[in-house]
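Sample entry (216 residues):
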Amino acid sequence: MIIAIDGPAASGKGTLARRLATHFGLPHLDTGLLYRATARALLDHGHDLSDRAAAVSAARSLALTDFDEAGLRSRDMAEAASVVAAIPEVRAALVDMQRRFAGRQGGALLDGRDIGTVICPDAACKIFVTASDEARATRRALELRGRGEKVDYGAVLEDIRKRDLRDSSRAAAPLRPAADAVVLDTTKLDVEAAFKAALVIVESAQNSLRAGHPAY
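Predicted structure, serialized as tokens:
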């Protein structure tokens, strides 16, 4: 079974994806790390984030074992990743890697921004996780403070809104719910409540899959 989880920054999709993957015993890929790692490689080699040729080369050279996840979780890397992710050729270069991961025997869980719409359009279960701008900014600020970064809430909120606009308006794979995705609004949900709501969605999809027809 393939589970596709999409949503904007700080919606809670990453935390939810990790918990669901553990619960169902599925390999998990945070596809956002692919774009962060691509951006990191560009910057490390002195390239501009808008250098398409260098960005594509960096994306094609990635391996799923290359990631220093802690080093890729900063606010600056989130912004850089959003710039790189808007390059259509970069997205194209990373499609096969993501689909190979999704094609593992026994299934997989992937989270990102175009899993249900582009990477795994036939996924058995699709969830689009969202929350208000303010709730997401609060979560991201707390996350960054927890890593010891100095944080200005207003700046974080502005970054999130800028990223939403960039992600939803890009020509290649814009951020949007798949037509058959279930939208899960986590604005007023804590981690446990969001997990329980997602479990209901996934279990419904599993039951429908066993019965031989789509859930949604």
